[in-house]
């Protein structure tokens, strides 16, 4: 576990607009064959990446809290642009937090990040278990001690056994928290055994869990999720028709209980 310097900001509002989005390091993908014809973009810079990041930033600007997966922390392939910072600045988010999970020097800096209009008073990074290193959980505590909202950002492994171990670990992280949001690319369907186990262990649910987000050009799989604890009232859930990555962004609007409005 690594603690990150936090910067608490204004108290939480009655309503939060959430987004979870795997942005594929800013690469627009509209067809399956582009995984092969444009695969070089995973290691080399391209002229279309920064304009696409700007479109992503514009899309996110209407939300309060955004969890992002598959960012680049500033390396050759992104033109040495720290994408979390760029999206925060261009999208108008005063607070941003990044976890670099696979640092490959100048070639790639694989990361996840959270953009927020509200500062966290505590932020921790956790390395998730699994046979292949490079997966993590970024945990934010918003609000104030004793009246806190715990937000967890994930990008889980491809293998089911590894996902089970990772979700068991995360369930332990949030076991004592009353108000929790877990979001990210889980690489599994809502009705998968591992996600059902996690929701039961952590006391979370996913209203309207039949929202496909992948692939962006013909969404068929609901592998991106926003899970919430019972005291967070879900007002709406949706998927935006914004094929700026190989995933589509998942959104949710929730109403916070009075105890969190500090």
Automatic annotation (TrEMBL):
Domain Endonuclease/exonuclease/phosphatase: 19-247
A GO MF label: endonuclease activity
Superkingdom field: Bacteria
Keywords, sorted A to Z: Endonuclease, Hydrolase, Nuclease
InterPro entries: Endo/exonu/phosph_ase_sf, Endo/exonuclease/phosphatase, GPI-anchor_lipid_remodeler
Entry keyword Transmembrane: no
PANTHER family: CALCOFLUOR WHITE HYPERSENSITIVE PROTEIN PRECURSOR, ENDONUCLEASE_EXONUCLEASE_PHOSPHATASE DOMAIN-CONTAINING PROTEIN
Name of the protein described by the UniProt record: Endonuclease/exonuclease/phosphatase family protein
Biological source species: Spiribacter pallidus
């Amino acid at each position: 576990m690594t603690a990150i310097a936090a910067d608490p900001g204004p108290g939480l509002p009655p309503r939060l607009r959430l987004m979870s989005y795997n942005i594929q390091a800013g690469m627009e993908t509209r067809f399956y064959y582009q995984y092969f014809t444009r695969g070089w973009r995973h290691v080399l810079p391209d002229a279309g990446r920064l304009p696409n990041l700007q479109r992503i930033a514009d899309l996110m600007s209407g939300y309060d809290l955004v969890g992002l997966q598959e960012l680049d922390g500033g390396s050759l392939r992104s033109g040495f642009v720290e994408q979390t910072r760029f999206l925060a600045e261009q999208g108008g988010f005063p607070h941003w937090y990044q976890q670099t999970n696979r640092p490959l020097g100048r070639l790639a800096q694989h990361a996840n990040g959270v953009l927020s209009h509200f500062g966290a008073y505590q932020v921790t990074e956790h390395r998730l278990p699994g046979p292949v290193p490079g997966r993590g959980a970024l945990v934010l505590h918003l609000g104030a001690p004793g009246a806190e909202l715990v937000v967890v950002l994930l990008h889980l492994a491809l293998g089911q056994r590894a996902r089970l171990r990772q979700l068991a670990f995360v369930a332990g992280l949030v076991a004592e928290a009353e108000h929790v949001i877990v979001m990210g690319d889980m690489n599994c369907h809502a009705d998968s055994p591992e996600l059902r186990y996690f929701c039961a262990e952590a006391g979370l649910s996913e209203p309207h869990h039949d929202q496909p987000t992948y692939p962006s050009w013909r969404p068929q799989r609901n592998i991106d999720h926003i899970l919430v604890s019972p005291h967070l009232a879900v007002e709406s859930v949706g998927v935006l028709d914004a094929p700026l990555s190989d995933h589509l962004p998942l959104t949710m609007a929730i109403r916070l209980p009075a105890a969190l409005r500090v």
